Amino acid sequence: MGFPAQTLYQKTEVDGGTGLFFYLVRMRTFTTEEASVLEAIIFHRRDVRGNRFLPKDVSPDVLDRLLAAALQAPSVGLSQPWEFVMIRDTGVKQQIRECFEEENDRAGELFQGERQEQYRQLKLEGITEAPVNMAVFYTPAGRPVLGQTSMQEAGPYSVVCAIQNLWLMARALNVGVGWVSILQEEKVKTILHAPPQNRLIAYLCIGYVDEFLTTPELEQLGWEKRKEKTAAVFYDRYQSKLPANAEG
Known about the structure:
- Helices cover 35% and strands 16% of the residues.
- It is of the alpha+beta class.
């Protein structure tokens, strides 16, 4: 039996003298220094564009570590509703790239004036540049799932947790990840021969990069600004805004 490193296990005999044992997991604690490392990984995670990827392969061992991190993600009712399609084939990548280009042209029409011009100049994928692509799917259970009976979206959200785990592990290994969302789901499913009931949650581009930017690229380019804590955090309940002419 293999156990994760640095996790403590206590062997306990089952009652009745059967000679059977079970293991009680005693989760380890972490030091302040270890917590600081995780904090740094979170703060330095970036969404990587195609102009950053290097022509350097990602080894199977590294990919296994990324997948192992993803598979440790929390999931509603321990449903683990995820499946991962690893893509290295250049022909498949090119088909996905063509799907992106079609959707990206359509998306560009939604912006106007200078915003549209800026959008057209953005590099928003690295499908053919990245050595590895990964399509991440949500697989419905087809039966009631504990914790998902009221909020059905808890299933797809569980898959997003797996993606975040993978992304953070990749950053810890100095591997870049880019999430391509400008895709038509059904076309991607057709290209990948995905089961009809599966939902495409993410299409990831994975590989080593020339650098990790100090701040998000879209922030550097002036497309968006990072939201401040005061604009995102509320206490106890949402607070109604007072009318402009209200006193006090």
